[in-house]
Amino acid sequence: xxxxxxxxxxxxxxxxxxxxxxxxxxxxxxxxxxxxxxxxxxxxxxxxxxxxxxxxxxxxxxxxxxxxxxxxxxxxxxxxxxxxxxxxxxxxxxxxxxxxxxxxxxxxxxxxxxxxxxxxxxxxxxxxxxxxxxxxxxxxxxxxxxxxxxxxxxxxxxxxxxxxxxxxxxxxxxxxxxxxxxxxxxxxxxxxxxxxxxxxxxxxxxxxxxxxxxxxxxxxxxxxxxxxxxxxxxxxxxxxxxxxxxxxxxxxxxxxxxxxxxxxxxxxxxxxxxxxxxxxxxxxxxxxxxxxxxxxxxxxxxxxxxxxxxxxxxxxxxxxxxxxxxxxxxxxxxxxxxxxxxxxxxxxxxxxxxxxxxxxxxxxxxxxxxxxxxxxxxxxxxxxxxxxxxxxxxxxxxxxxxxxxxxxxxxxxxxxxxxxxxxxxxxxxxxxxxxxxxxxxxxxxxxxxxxxxxxxxxxxxxxxxxxxxxxxxxxxxxxxxxxxxxxxxxxxxxxxxxxxxxxxxxxxxxxxxxxxxxxxxxxxxxxxxxxxxxxxxxxxxxxxxxxxxxxxxxxxxxxxxxxxxxxxxxxxxxxxxxxxxxxxxxxxxxxxxxxxxxxxxxxxxxxxxxxxxxxxxxxxxxxxxxxxxxxxxxxxxxxxxxxxxxxxxxxxxxxxxxxxxxxxxxxxxxxxxxxxxxxxxxxxxxxxxxxxxxxxxxxxxxxxxxxxxxxxxxxxxxxxxxxxxxxxxxxxxxxxxxxxxxxxxxxxxxxxxxxxxxxxxxxxxxxxxxxxxxxxxxxxxxxxxxxxxxxxxxxxxxxxxxxxxxxxxxxxxxxxxxxxxxxxxxxxxxxxxxxxxxxxxxxxxxxxxxxxxxxxxxxxxxxxxxxxxxxxxxxxxxxxxxxxxxxxxxxxxxxxxxxxxxxxxxxxxxxxxxxxxxxxxxxxxxxxxxxxxxxxxxxxxxxxxxxxxxxxxxxxxxxxxxxxxxxxxxxxxxxxxxxxxxxxxxxxxxxxxxxxxxxxxxxxxxxxxxxxxxxxxxxxxxxxxxxxxxxxxxxxxxxxxxxxxxxxxxxxxxxxxxxxxxxxxxxxxxxxxxxxxxxxxxxxxxxxxxxxxxxxxxxxxxxxxxxxxxxxxxxxxxxxxxxxxxxxxxxxxxxxxxxx
Length: 1140
Prior knowledge:
With 1140 residues, the protein is an alpha+beta fold. The strands form 9 sheets. Strands 4, 5, 6, 7, 8, 9 and 10 form a 7-stranded antiparallel β-sheet that branches.
């Protein structure tokens, strides 16, 4: 996305990076879900780079976020350009500093070796001087001396060479610099000039003559034996400038030896002046000055004090040595006019001198501060830093020698102090100019934004961004008069053009607001704003500011306080073309002290805003047809073009110009498509254009494939319409094309993805229908292989072996495995038969995806499912975790032999893995539910049997009843067939042909039910048997278990003697037995319910009668009597006793 953003110079937004085709998935940012790439565009519309913003949320960036971040990106681009300019400036400053320091260094020395060494040190700051030399020469001689040479980083011994030798001799003879960029150029030049080589051949060589007073005094050169094309013209210019100083130093060497120490000090003063004049940063200036003075004059201590704004204290701003550092840290200060030489010096603006600080009254000063941090001070001088007639500070100079200062020293230090004061003033003026420049730059940028603002809201936003209006926390409003303000004709209405509010409803700006605003506007004049710092304050405000009680009527003041809870108010006039057209109104929650700078900036920008607002108003008054047409053509992203009858472009919009590859739309005028496009597609488009102007038929939405001369291919949806004049004659055509390249690519990719996703959907549907794990896993492998075409698929499930007795927990952790449960591939059967497993945790892709809970792409398969057919067979694998909630059940491993085997399919495959995990979990839950149901049935069955045992015992009912065709009678014995049916829980059929009872072998024995039984909602029982006969000549007995919740509570015994039984009697009797069991259970529950109700009623009756007694004896007597009657007992007693 960064590359596309830089190439296209426009922002790119990926709400979901998994769906973004042009996205680099950074492994260091795995949590990225959405990304925004914004171009860094410089002042000349040059793309400097791009800014990327990434989020862990999908669709994290709104349009407002994009706009805000683009603004930040634009500011960043400006900052980058400024930084580049700053680097250039710093480079220039560094060069100037080198020149300045070199000049100072050379001026401070008077022997040749020092000049050469100082030159080498300074040149080393700007060049790589591992290979560097300075040659000296005296005019009239035929030799030159290699006075200083550094070769391969080692200092060489000086040597003498003939004038005609080497490149150095050539420069001396020709008095011109020489730059050889590479070895080939070096050799060619040496050959062409017939020069003898001195030393080794250099890959890069740069030499300049040392010329002073029109005399060549030597050559200075730098070279490189490792790098070609190392030096630039600017390097040559800088080296030439340095050479000029070195030449002067060499020539001045003799003169300097003749000058005494006083001349050295005077030169040092000049150096200090130059240093102070070249430094514009105040603190750096002071620190550099005191260090120079101390070092050059060999003083014990030098410091600078500056008076504060009230001129009460002289504050130390720079000091040398450890003492200076400690005093600065302690914020050392002396009282102006107090008991110190510095205080007196600043007060009187005159120098103060103490030639011997240890002797009272010695020298010129009797007032001195004895500083314990400077115990070696014996002489001190305080020199004022004067600006006009006033001292702004003082320079303190201290020496460890007594009587160290002469009158000449005082004059010299006074000169230096005056120069330092001038430098301080320059630094102050520079700081002010910087602030002014920043203000001008702010005004320029704001004016540019105001002029470029597309609407009123943008104008207001620019004002808020660059002025004090942006600090409001209530509202800012642009109010336009219904007509320009005139003294004799004030406006009658205000029209809000734009308004920014915070937590203020629109209803707040009602008629009362307009009345209060009109009252407040009386304080404004076209050239003077009304700035009310505190609506609740009393008294007179400064110029341009209005106190709350001055001229502002109480009702308006009260309205803004009560309606908006405002504490400060600003009303800025909008003046355009000499006419007062409206107001800027801002309210502040807290009192606000408007500064003069803020007032000046807001007034300047208010004038710009007024012009922009009026331009916008006038622009809206222009014919909307022309405006809309121009705006549409120039701003829509689609390409728009007009052609004449020769199919030459007569007008194109910027989008079309960009598509044609020209920077300016005017560059396309007069040219045709064939000047820009090639191939059959261009010819086809040409034929379409001819048909439009020839036949007058429009072409709507035709898909065109265009290839430009650089071979770039694009797809467009083209519409072409003939243009006619007022007579109906065709005069050309107009076309509009939409670039659908990305859309077509997306459609093509979507079709491919749709096919894959359809297969994935079918796989998921198949998996969701399988509940048996034994069937699910192999079927998953088959479905993925057949539908998605992957040659290797494996399913691993986690398994844990219980720790052996005595083993540690760490050993148990190491016993976890991933077991291969299903696989497909050429070697799948072999792996399944070999009980393949992978350690967990482990380094295999399957183990890593389980451990990390995310897909793993690798070229090292977890298991070899695909048999290698050649040595260069490429096998890629994606291992997908089977995630279920917070658990990882295992891994789904898919292998491919394609170069890009998975591409964008990882997310889809992970969905299949998630579906498989869900299916496995559902299977597990169903198995567990089935087990729980069986356990519940067992519990319910036991409860049912126990309830019936208790019921029969409690009610003392007979265990059997028999019906012989007349009345119901009690059965005293249990037939053997009933015992067998009861015991085995299944129907039993007996047939008796004599007195002996034999089991009927012809009748099938029915197995006991295995699943929970529920009475079917079957049709009513048949009333007549069928004609088929069962044992027509024998005595037949049927014993059917009577079940309640699958528990046998009785047996239904039916016997037919000499009768025929229907063939479906067995099924009929089973149905009757089932319904009989349900009816019996219902009757039992009803009888139990009635019994409980009777007991409750009896207990309630007894309790009511007992509560009617108020005496303890009567109460106990009543309770015992009622219980005896209710229970039928002869004796009942109550004993009362409290344990001690």
